[in-house]
Design brief:
The chain has 80 residues and is mainly α. The protein has one domain: Orthogonal Bundle (434 Repressor (Amino-terminal Domain)), CATH 1.10.260. Helix content is 42%, strand content 8%. It has 4 helices and 2 strands, in the order E-H-H-H-H-E. The protein has a two-stranded antiparallel sheet with strand order 1-2. The chain is globular and about 30 Å long. The N terminus is likely disordered.
């Protein structure tokens, strides 16, 4: 399933990070300088690809490391 978000074994943690920082997707998109559509796709894990530049902008805006934004998703591999 190359390129298909449903086949990913990793997931973006952006929704959780925004909740922890108490910031809306709209406000975060403005602060990070990225589109709301991109933020929403990452929050809902509706994309399998994101540029390193975008990941860097997200990490910078949240004050986290890029590795904090992505995690392996065992559920997608049939495990709990």
């Amino acid at each position: 399933m190359h390129g298909n978000a449903a086949g990913m074994a990793a997931r973006f943690r952006l929704r959780e990070l925004l909740e922890e920082h108490e910031i809306t997707q709209t406000e975060f998109a403005r602060r990070a300088g990225i589109s709301f559509a991109t933020v929403n796709r990452l929050c809902t894990n509706a994309t399998a690809q994101v540029s390193l530049d975008t990941l860097d902008k997200i990490a910078e805006a949240l004050g986290v490391e890029i590795g904090d934004i992505i995690e392996r998703d065992a559920k997608r591999k049939g495990r709990k």
